[in-house]
Amino acid sequence: MPISQALVTRYFQLIVGRQFTEAERELERVKQKMQKTEWNRGYFRALYGMYLSRKNANDNYAFFSKLDLSDKVALHVYRREFLDHMQNGLHGDFDRGYFSAWADCMRILARMDIPSPQNGKATDAGKIETLKSDKSQATIANFLNKNKGETSSA
């Protein structure tokens, strides 16, 4: 039985949306419906690796954490590269299944409407944290603004 693309698509949507509990359930459904082949083992390992990589957002070396999910052109380039590896006869079944999962991931991500991460960061950059509960408590932003004013007037 081939791997259900509907389950895999749902899985990718969940990990991109950082809904890890539901993504783990979906991954288990995929695993249960898979036949025990080397290709499927590689495919599943890639899916599980994507889950771990996405869950641990602090890993600066992971491909998924460096990936700009809103860059459709780059996603298509990566998909083509993964497809080339998948079709390479020098790779074993496990590796071809692994690259096939990544190619599927890039295909699905390219079809999703994911906002650019720069948009979210720009709005957060201008915010200054203030303590509402204790007006006498100084924040580092207030300290820096106060010192900036003193140096410009001197």
In N-to-C order, the SSE pattern is: HHHHHHHH
**How big a fraction of the residues is strand?**
under 5%
- What characterizes the major β-sheet? none
Q: Oligomeric status of the shown chains?
A: single chain
Distance between the termini: 77 Å
> What class would the helix/strand composition place it in?
mainly alpha
- What fraction, in percent, of the residue positions are helical? 55-70%
Low-confidence segments, given as residue ranges, are 119-128
Globular, elongated, flat, extended or rod-shaped: what is the shape?
globular
The number of distinct helices, counting runs of at least 4 residues, comes to 8
Can you describe this structure?
The chain has helices at residues 5-16, 20-33, 38-55, 63-66, 72-87, 93-111, 117-125, 140-153. With 154 residues, the chain is mainly α. Helix 1 (5-16) packs across helix 6, helix 2 (20-33) runs antiparallel to helix 3 and helix 5 (72-87) runs antiparallel to helix 6 (93-111). The longest helix is centred in the middle third of the chain and has 19 residues, at 93-111.
